[in-house]
Amino acid sequence: MSLEHSSLSRRSLLTRAALGAGVLASGLSFDTALASPRPAVPRPRKRVLRVAHLTDIHVQPEKRAGEGMAACLKHVADLADKPDLILTGGDHVMDSFEATFDRTKTQWDLFTKTLADGLSIPVRSTIGNHDAWGWNKAKSNTTGTENSWGKAWAVDALKLPARYYSFDQAGWHFVVLDSVFPNGDGYLGKLDDEQAEWLDADLAKLPKGTPTLVLSHIPILTVTTSVYTKPDKDNNYNISGSLQHCDYARIKSIFEKHNTVKLCLSGHMHLIDRCDYNGVTYLCNGAVSGNWWKGRHRDCDEGYAAINLFDDGSFEHEYIKYGWKAETK
Fold this sequence. Notes:
Blueprint: H1 3-26, H2 30-35, E1 47-54, H3 65-77, E2 85-88, H4 101-118, E3 123-125, H5 137-140, H6 152-157, E4 165-169, E5 172-176, E6 180-183, E7 186-189, H7 193-204, E8 212-215, H8 225-228, H9 248-258, E9 261-266, E10 272-277, E11 280-285, E12 303-310, E13 315-321
Parallel strand pairs: 1-2, 2-3, 5-8, 8-9, 9-11
Antiparallel strand pairs: 1-12, 4-5, 6-7, 10-11, 12-13
Helix pairs in contact: 3-4, 7-9
């Protein structure tokens, strides 16, 4: 045996002896200690997408709303950290629910032109209650048989593939819901049976671990309903189905079944909140128009949200005010 080999063997023996002493002191077996892997170093998460969520624009010829919309789009475009994608959350025009054909056309023409002039970032959209044309037939002078009646006009103006749809980008799955349905001269937040079955099937097709973002106009779950709701004579709060999805339990069961949904974005309330429940975060993201272009709405300034999405399914969220000075008269 060479001197070098003998020296290495003694060092190896001393090392194993020292380890053995430590193992005995800890109560573990020698073989177990040798076989235990080193703790894995956590892999740092990577941002894969930055999204801007602009909701409740409510553009109209009055109150400089077209200028306000343009100012918001410019603010988004001028961000040092520019978004890769814009999601618009419904109520793009002030109102076509009760508006005549001519009034509806004026609003959508203004929206389309302002968007085309002010933005080059890709946009995906959902439909809001004020985007549906003529559901109040008496005030809109419609019969319900017009080609563009209901959601058809919005689907066309927003260039949607359908009234609800999904797509994939940067490792995330996006589901865009149609959350508004007529209820007499009003509306309800819910999914129809066809759409609920589609949502179940759409999530079922995803590879395990695919993080999913859901976009709706009316919140699926929110705490802001308490701001709008007054107690009845017995001091009970009854949440209106026009403020929050009345079929939340059904949607929750679909989310639980597939366990992919991480984040839900909504508008409608013109307020900001965050609700974390059962592994899903629900964000209500204010309004570009604030108080329908009359300034701050309750506790919320005119603004939009910026959301960073990461490869591990996590996210970062910020509400950004774009400094609009509204006409208050």
